[in-house]
Amino acid sequence: MCSACGQTTADCGQALPDRLRDRLLADHGSATLHVTGPSVERVTLMRVLRAELGIGLTDAKAVLGQVLAGAYSGTLPEVEYLACKLRRAGVDAVAKRCPVTAGHGWIILVWLV
Predict the structure, then answer these.
(1) Residue 109 pLDDT exceeds 60
(2) What is the DSSP string of 61-109?
(3) Measured by CB atoms within 10 angstroms of the end CB, which terminus of the chain is less buried, N or C?
(4) Which residues contact 83 (CB under 8 A, 6 or more apart)?
């Protein structure tokens, strides 16, 4: 539930609709995914990225480059979900919120993993 507008949304097991995702990003900013371990197993990263994002090998290589550069971003719940999957696969990963430039309140989304 958004404390600014009062809207509540629940989408169980589905991708967040683009209009809501765009609103979350506009109101609350984005988050970036950072891998923090000293030696990152690229094969493990690629496997998790392909499985969780539903992408092919070529796209996974591009996303891997973004992740390793600290440039992969999305909504905080999206990035935290991916970080959780990476941690379960043995990769030290964290989601870091980018500074918020506009918006009010907080939205908390919970995924049961």
Answers:
(1) no
(2) HHHHHHHHTT--EE-HHHHHHHHHHHHHTT--EEEEEPPP-S--S----
(3) C
(4) 33, 93, 94, 95
pTM of the full structure: 0.72
Q: For 94-110, what is the mean pLDDT?
A: 62
Tell the residue number behind the tokens 């440039």, with chain if given: 71
Beta carbons within 8 Å of 70's beta carbon, 6+ residues apart: 32, 33, 34
| Listed residue (30, 49, 29) closest to 93, CA to CA | 49
Q: Phi and psi at residue 47, in whole multiples of 5°?
A: -60, -45
DSSP secondary structure of 6-25: ------SSSPPPHHHHHHHH
Which residues, other chains included, contact 47 with Cβ-Cβ below 8 Å and sequence gap of 6+? 89
How many Å apart are CA 95 and CA 92, to the nearest integer?
11
